Automatic annotation (TrEMBL):
InterPro entries: FucosylTrfase_pln (IPR024709), GDP-Fuc_O-FucTrfase (IPR019378), Nop56/Nop58 (IPR045056), Nop_C (IPR042239), Nop_dom (IPR002687), Nop_dom_sf (IPR036070), NOSIC (IPR012976)
Keyword Transferase: yes
Name this polypeptide is given: Nucleolar protein 56
Keyword Cytoplasm: no
Keyword list, A-Z: Carbohydrate metabolism, Fucose metabolism, Glycosyltransferase, Nucleus, Ribosome biogenesis, Transferase
Recorded GO MF terms: glycosyltransferase activity; snoRNA binding
Gene Ontology annotations for the cellular component aspect, listed alphabetically: box C/D methylation guide snoRNP complex; small-subunit processome
Entry-linked PANTHER family: NUCLEOLAR PROTEIN 5 NUCLEOLAR PROTEIN NOP5 NOP58 (PTHR10894), NUCLEOLAR PROTEIN 56 (PTHR10894:SF0)
Length: 1020
């Protein structure tokens, strides 16, 4: 210090020494705090009270309006500027000051009189301890350290729980090895092991407790049965006690982990609500831990450098941005992902196509940086900006997939600021109203000195928010307007007093946001692939080994094993809820050209499932999925697949009416006499979970809506539009709360908006999964067919009711034709189609099903080998299987039905349940290499669309109108007939388009509404 009055400092150098009376004071706590305070100034930009008081007490005061006679030498220029700004003390720095301070450090013990030899070491030790404490508690206002530590502890607990759970499984498997195969979850396995203890004591009394743990009574019974015949080793009581104690500790750790996660969620919502809401609480805590904290010094450093895609520039300033840009580069070049790879599992990147994964990662990095700045600088905990940021990410996804131009960044920010200002005005109005309340009207608690609960909660929340030295001390969302001025110059000129640091911050932030918006449009070209779309999860995608050499048999086996385990999957993910068929077989090498062509599978033309809904649809889902006032009840009539179509329409109608859907009621049909209910045929729990984001599904009406007389609508015109349904029923539904619809078959139009088309596909191909007993038996029968080689599923419509309803003759002889004709005349209401047409006209028009002889001629012309195996789906043929199928069995002897394929007793639970038997036929046909129906119908259309959706399995739809004249012309040679018929059915080698644009039945033809084409097929 230069120019200090004499007598104030004493020592070898008057400008560098202090009086003896102050020696102990300097080397006490004040000196340590001084060093820590200097460090805080240089890193955080804050000056502590101790540092301020030290300078004011030891330096002469400067009078207002006069120039200071001395200056304070400071090594760091930034430190000097902060001291000058805060205390008005003139500071200087330079080479002279640095050299002077270096000399002070070398000869410090000689400058102070009466300094004992040990005092300097004690002071150095105290300074070291204080500095370490400051590094741990870097900022007194910092509260994100708890979230970071909770995140680290979560990672440790995940590893430990996984390791300990595996140890429990291995230890207890010595005693009960069968339990591992039944219970796959480690935590549930530990709970079950603790409950069972010794397997010899397992009894039926344990089944309710096991059911409560597993949530599945069938598994509980399976554990009980396995315990009776377990091959495990007996354990001594001491061994069992140790296993139980260890399992108990693992369970406690797992429960503590859940509580810790809840704590992290709450903490992150207080510390960084915008970042947590954008990418999730755990991922947000990980990102905060990378730069070390969410304190102003880190954010100021990030703001000082423009956002760049070059990882070398961002690695110095922003580890978060550096990590995400490295991930974007890795996704683009298909290289190794960065060390942390935090955003790789983000739902935003998963929803983007493979081509745009890198772009999406880079865009998400920018939005995460903006969200972190909001959390750092914005006081008051507003949620407006994360909502807008999330909307921007959704819009960017639509831009990549569909080419819809997103809103400009400045427009979005203006909208966010306006919403924030409106909320601020509302808060001020509420406060003004409270002030106008008379004292006698205030609560008693306030008069007793207790603050109202709202004020207490606000005080608690404000105490946890990170404060910003550049912002106003009064928490107010209005301060957000300072972050996004229309013009930085206007912002600066409008305020009477603006600190230099505030001005620098505003300018840097505005320029960084502007550069960000420009760089986005520069780095991402506007030209997009118009048909980019998401695909089914790779883990659930079927493998088509026709294009693979025999060396890939391990891949085929792995796919088969995945099909075996598909029954246990209950996660409501779109990529994982669709049934996966068994893989198709390789074409044998010893076949003729026509036979090899018969087994050859279509390539699919790059079509993959694509069910991405629009942003408007997702916004409305938030309200519709929790609807509790309007309920729709639907009664589905007909056979299984008729009821299936009506259930699909019921979900769409519930969505149109914004109502909750009660599980559909299956009406007993007078022909099939099946009394099965919805949970008997379909998996009700899976149905609810899969559709919970689209429509709320409940098991029954709540008691508040059980009224004595309900309006039942039985008459509706065919092909009604969503607008007609809403105009007809929405007001009535609002008034009564319940709407009952009957007879929905073909009543809803097939020409629907894109989102409703996707919803139909979601219901048909994902939500409507058969009940577990049906699914297990159907898959078992399919595997028995599959294991012996490729097979064809023939859906032969030869039942008595089919001949009656179609108005056709059986071809089995006069006595059978007479029976059918007599029923048609006595009960004409069963006849479908054109009533005035004769049998010959119906047959030539393609309205009659192919009989066994005609099907045999078709298969022979298509090149089917004589040794081919056929699964016959459908009910009992009229006239008996032996007589009705004789012409087909003569040409192709390997005919199999479910009755001959099933073992003794397997079909017993489903006797007299036609819907369950039809579902089993559906599953075996679904897994076949080729599917051929004889007459179309609901099941044939559903299978055709479902097989196309999961991998474009080969389905041949007979062209009956062109076939029958060819069959009746004996002059056509067999080779020519075969060539013509193969030409007629060549469309089966690619996804079949719709024949009529006005009939957009996505259940039979999912292309293009529910499936998108990719430029290159994905490799799974």
């Amino acid at each position: 210090m230069n120019g200090v009055p004499k007598g104030r400092f004493k020592g070898a150098n008057p400008s560098l020494t202090v009086t003896d009376s102050r020696t102990r004071h300097i080397f006490g706590k004040t000196q340590i705090r001084l060093a820590i305070g200097l460090r805080l100034v240089s890193l955080v930009g804050l000056i502590t009270d101790e540092l301020r008081s030290f300078l004011e007490l030891n330096l002469p005061k400067v009078r207002v309006g006069k120039k200071s006679k001395f200056s304070l030498g400071v090594a760091e220029p930034k430190l000097g500027s902060h001291v000058t700004e805060t205390t008005k003390i003139t500071c200087q720095s330079g080479e002279f000051v640095l050299e002077l301070l270096h000399g002070v450090r070398l000869h410090f013990d000689k400058f102070i009189k009466d300094l004992k030899p040990g005092d300097l070491k004690k002071a150095q030790l105290g300074l070291a301890h204080g500095y370490s404490l400051a590094k741990v508690k870097f900022d007194v206002n910092r509260v994100d350290n708890t979230a970071i530590q909770a995140k680290f502890l979560l990672d440790t607990l995940d590893k430990d729980i996984s390791s300990f759970s595996m140890r429990v499984r291995e230890w207890y498997s010595w005693h009960f090895p069968e339990l591992v195969k039944i219970v796959n979850d480690n935590y549930l396995h530990a709970r079950v092991a603790k409950l069972i203890e010794c397997k010899s004591k397992l009894s039926e009394e344990h089944i309710p407790a096991l059911t409560e743990i597993l949530g599945d009574e069938d598994k509980a019974k399976e554990i009980f049965e396995a315990g009776k015949a377990s091959m495990g080793q007996d354990l001594t009581p001491v061994d069992l006690i140790n296993v139980q104690l260890f399992a108990h500790r693992v369970m406690n750790l797992a429960e503590y982990r859940k509580n810790l996660y809840d704590y992290l969620v709450t903490n992150m919502n207080d510390i960084a609500p915008n970042l947590a809401s954008l990418i999730g609480e755990v991922a947000g805590a990980r990102l905060i831990s990378l730069p070390g904290s969410l304190t102003p010094d880190r954010i100021v450093i990030i703001l000082a450098i423009n956002v760049q895609s070059d990882s070398s520039a961002s690695s110095v300033s922003d580890p978060l941005h550096h990590n995400l840009t490295k991930l974007a580069k890795a996704l683009k070049t298909r290289g190794n992902t960065p060390k942390y790879g935090l955003s790789f599992h983000s739902s935003f990147i998963g929803r983007a196509s493979a081509k745009n994964n890198g772009r999406m990662a880079r865009y998400l990095a920018n939005k995460c940086s903006v969200a972190s700045r909001m959390d750092c600088f914005v006081e008051g905990g507003t949620t407006v900006f994360w909502e807008k940021l999330r909307e921007q990410v959704d819009e960017r996804l639509e831009f990549y997939d569909k080419g819809v131009a997103p809103r400009k960044n400045i427009d979005v920010m203006k909208s966010a600021i306006e919403n924030t200002q409106n909320r601020d005005v509302e808060m001020e109005e509420e406060k003004s109203k409270k002030k106008k309340v008379k004292p006698e009207d205030t609560p008693v608690a306030a008069t007793n000195g207790d603050a109202p609960e709202d004020d207490k909660s606000m005080a608690r929340s404000s105490g946890r928010i990170i404060k910003n030295p550049f912002m106003s001390l009064t928490p107010s969302p209005r301060s957000l307007t300072q972050l996004f001025p229309v013009s930085p110059l206007t912002s600066l000129s409008s305020s009477k007093k603006t600190s230099p640091s505030h001005s620098i911050f505003v300018l840097s932030f505005v320029f960084s946001v502007t550069f960000l918006g420009i760089s986005m449009f520069r780095f991402f070209p506007a030209s997009q692939d118009p048909i980019q779309c998401s695909i089914v999860s790779p883990t659930m995608s079927p493998i088509s080994p026709l294009s693979l050499p025999p060396s890939h048999s391990q891949i085929i086996l792995a796919s088969l094993l995945s099909g075996l385990n598909s029954n246990d999957e209950v996660q409501p993910r779109i990529g994982g809820t669709s049934m996966v068929p068994l893989p198709v077989h390789l074409v044998p090498g010893d076949l003729s050209e026509q036979e090899a062509e018969f087994w050859k599978q279509p390539d699919g033309n790059g079509y993959r499932p694509c069910l991405d809904s629009t942003m408007e649809y997702r916004k409305r889902s938030a309200k519709i999925s929790i609807e509790k006032n309007r309920f729709l009840v639907v009664v589905a009539a007909g056979g299984l697949n008729q009821q299936r179509n009506q259930i699909i329409d019921a979900v769409v109608i519930a969505r149109i009416l914004e109502a909750a859907l009660v599980l559909p009621i299956l009406q007993v049909n007078m022909i099939w006499e099946d009394e099965s209910e919805f949970p008997d045929i379909f998996d009700a729990g899976h149905f609810k979970k899969t559709l919970r984001a689209d429509v709320r599904v409940v098991s029954s009406l709540p008691s508040s809506h059980l009224i004595a007389k309900q309006t039942i609508v039985t008459q509706m015109p065919y092909g009604v539009s969503p607008f007609w349904i809403r105009a007809k029923f929405f007001k009535q539904l609002n008034q009564e709360g319940v709407l009952v619809l009957k007879g929905l078959d073909s009543k809803l139009s097939k020409n629907l908006p894109s989102d409703l088309h996707k919803l139909r596909c979601k219901v048909a191909f994902h939500a409507l999964r058969f009940a577990k007993p049906i699914l297990q038996l159907g898959n078992q029968l399919a595997r028995r067919m599959w294991i012996e080689g490729p097979y064809v599923a023939l859906h032969l419509r030869l039942e008595k009711d089919v001949w009656v309803r179609t108005g056709c003759l059986t071809g089995l002889g006069p006595e059978f034709d007479e029976i059918v004709t007599r029923i048609q005349k006595s009960q004409p209401q069963y006849l479908t189609g054109r009533v005035n047409m004769s049998y010959a006209q119906r047959r030539l028009s393609g309205l009659c099903p192919l009989n066994a002889l005609e099907m045999a001629r078709l298969l022979k012309a298509l090149g089917a080998p004589k040794s081919a195996r056929f699964y016959i789906a459908g009910g009992e043929p009229f006239g008996g299987s032996t007589k009705a199928l004789a012409p087909l069995a003569a040409e192709f002897p390997n005919l199999v039905r479910k009755e001959s394929l099933a073992r003794d007793g397997e079909l017993s639970p489903f006797l007299n349940r036609s819907s369950a038997l039809s579902a089993i036929d559906y599953l075996v046909s679904f897994n076949s290499d080729i599917f051929i129906p004889s007459h179309g119908g609901n099941m044939a259309r559903a299978l055709q669309g479902h097989r196309a959706y999961v991998g474009n399995r080969k389905s041949i739809w007979p062209n009956k109108r062109a076939l029958l004249p060819l069959f009746e012309d004996p002059s056509i040679p067999d080779e020519e007939l075969s060539r013509i018929i193969r030409s007629l059915h060549s469309k089966s080698m690619k996804p079949e388009p719709r024949k009529k644009e006005r009939d957009n039945d996505v259940i039979a033809f999912p292309v293009p509404e529910c499936m998108c084409r990719r430029r290159s097929a994905a490799i799974f």
